[in-house]
Amino acid sequence: MANYSSNEFKPGLRVMVDNEPCIMIDIEFVKPGKGQAFSRVKLRSIRTQRVWERTFKSGESLESADIVDREMEYLYNDNEFWYFMATDGSFEQLGADSAAVGDTIKWLKEQVIYEVTLYNDAVVSVTAPNFVELDVLETDPGLKGDTAQGGTKPATLSTGAVVRVPLFIVEGEKLKIDTRSGEYVSRA
Amino acid sequence: MSTWSPSAPRTALVARQTLYRNIREYFYARSVLEVETPLLSQAPVADPNITPMQAGQRWLHTSPEYAMKRMLCAGYGDIYQICKVFREGEAGKRHNPEFTMLEWYRMGWTHRQLMDEVAELLQLLLAERFNDLSTLHLTYAQAFQQFAQLDVHQCSDQIIAERGQQLANADLDLDRDGWLDVIMSHQVEPALPHNTLIFVDQFPASQAALAKLATDTQGVLIAQRFEVFFNGMELANGYQELTDAKQQLQRFQHELQDTGRPHDAHLIAALEHGLPDCAGVALGLDRILLHLLDAPNIAQVVSFDWQRA
Prior knowledge:
The complex is a heterodimer.
Chain A lengths: L2 E3 L8 E4 L2 E11 L7 E8 L5 E7 L3 E3 L3 E11 L4 E5 L6 E4 L1 H4 L11 E7 L2 E6 L3 E9 L12 E6 L4 E5 L7 E5 L4 E5 L1
Chain B lengths: L9 H20 L3 E2 L5 E2 L12 E2 L2 E3 L4 H9 L5 E8 L11 E10 L3 H16 L7 E6 H9 L8 H12 L7 H16 L4 E9 L8 E3 L5 E10 L2 E8 L4 H15 L5 H9 L4 E7 H9 L16
Parallel strand pairs in B: 1-5, 7-8
Antiparallel strand pairs in B: 2-4, 3-4, 5-6, 6-12, 8-10, 9-10, 10-11, 11-12
C-alpha cells in the first residue's frame, strides 16, 4: 500500500488516520521561522463524514486508504440494504446500509447512477449526482397570479424529500433538483 | 489557467518593483550598502529545522546570513541584500521553497534599535494599504501569558506537551521547543491583534539560533531575538548577533550532530577573526506583497510558483 509523505499532502488525498479512512479537505503548511515545520490538515472521515483537524510533523507519512469510487445504478431496497448495480457490464450488485446511504436517501431513484464509495470492498458512502429529476407527490395548489411575486411553497417529492418550489408547481410534475443545495432548479 | 502562464498577475509584478525601489531608496538614504553573496556555497545551513537543497557539489543558501556575516567580520559596515533563498519542502499558501528575502545588518546597534528601524521600514512599505500602522511590543512570555494563559518560563514540560497535543490533536513526539512551536503557531499567532505590527522578543534561550543570550528582569536566561508578526503571519526574524566564536562553534556542533551536515569553516574562521557588535534581521518580501495585494496565496505574488517553475 502506498504511503504519502507530508510534502505530498493535498486536498482530495485519501489516507488512513488512526485506522479511519479519511479524505483531506485542506492543508496549511506551518513553519515558525526558526522552529519545527507542521502540516495542519482538515480531514473528513469517509465513514462518519465528520470533519476534523489534525497536525502532522513535516516528514510524517500516512498510509493511503483503500478507497474506490464506482458508478453504480440504484436498484431497490429491502428496508435493511439499498442495492446498487455496477454499470461496467459486470452486473455486480452491492448493498449499502442506512449509515452508508446517509442523507442521500432523499435523492435515491431507481435507474439513476450514483457514486458509490467502497472501503475494503464495503460501501461506506453514496453520493447523488448534482442534479436529479423527481416527481411531485404532494403540494398545496398554488393561487392564480402568485407567480409574479416569486413566492414558494413546500412540495413533497417521490423520494420523501421536501423542497421549496414556486407556487405554480402542481402535483404530478417532474422537477429538476440540485442535490448539493437541496433546491428546486426548474421543471424537468 | 494553464501552467505555461505566470501565476502572478502583472499588477503583482508592478507592486514588487515598487517594493524593491522603496527598500533600495530607504537604505541608500541611510548609507547602508547593497551587497550580493553567492547563492551556492560549500557548506550548508546548520539549523536542523531548515533543510537546504543541494546543487551538484554545492548547497543553495537558505539565507545569506553566513556570507554577510563574513563581510561584517571583514569590516564592510552596514549592509543589506535582497535575494532569492531556497528551503526544501517549505511549500504552502504562504510558503514557496524558493522565495525572496531582505536581510540587513547594523553595526554597533542593539536589537531594540533595529526593531525600531524594522517598524519604520514596514510602516513605509505597507503604507499603500495600511495607513499609520501602530506597533505592539510583547515578550515571548507576555505573548504566551496573554494569548495561551501559560507561564512559559516556569511551567513544566508536561503542561507544555499536554497543551500542544490538545492543539495538534495528536501526540507528535516533540521536545519542549517543538511543543512551544505548536502553541505559538496554533494558538498564540492566530490570536495576536490585527492591523498592528507585533514585535515579540526575549525568546527562550533554547531557541536562540544565532542570537546573544541575556537574562530578563526575572533573572531568566533568554535569547535576544525578535520576530515580527502582522495579520496572522510571521514577517521577520532578528537578532542581537552572537559575536563569540567559541559559543558559535559549540552551537554549530550541537546542531550538526543531529543533521550530519558539514559546518561552515569560513564562517567560524571569520568569527574567530572577530565579529563586531551588531544586530541583523531577515524579512520575507513575498509576504509583504501578500498583505499589500490582499492575496490569499503566495502563487499570486511570485511570477511562477513552485508548480509552474
